[in-house]
Design a protein that fits this description.
With about 90 residues, the chain is of the alpha+beta class. The protein contains 4 helices and 3 strands; from the N terminus they run H-E-H-H-E-E-H.
Length: about 90
C-alpha cells in the first residue's frame, strides 16, 4: 500500500502512516527497510519527512518480467501451432 501510494507522487510520513494501524515508530522502521532495499528515498525538511519512490527501483523487476513475458509468449505460440496442426491432422 505504501509503494502504491508513492507511485502517485511523494508523501509525508504522516500521510503514509495514516491508513495503517500501527505506532509511528514501528511504521518508521518499515520505511527504513524500504529505503534500505532501495525502493524509496526520503528527505527531511524541517520537521517533515517526505518519501518518494526511488527512480530506478523497479527497473530490474520490469526487465525480468519482460523477459518472462517473451518466454511465455513464445511457448504459447508453439502450443497454438501444435494444437492447430493436431486439428488439421484430425480433419484429414
Amino acid at each position: 500500500m505504501i509503494l502504491q501510494r508513492l507511485a502517485r507522487g511523494q508523501a509525508s510520513v504522516s500521510e503514509l502512516a495514516e491508513p495503517h494501524d500501527m505506532a509511528l515508530p514501528s511504521f518508521m522502521e518499515h520505511l527504513k527497510k524500504l529505503e534500505a532495499a532501495g525502493l524509496i528515498k526520503s528527505e527531511k525538511k524541517g520537521r517533515t519527512r517526505t518519501c518518494e519512490l526511488a527512480p530506478d527501483a523497479f527497473v530490474p523487476a520490469k526487465d525480468w518480467l519482460s523477459e518472462q513475458s517473451a518466454i511465455w509468449d513464445a511457448r504459447l505460440d508453439r502450443l497454438d501451432d501444435y494444437i492447430t496442426n493436431l486439428m488439421k491432422d484430425r480433419n484429414k
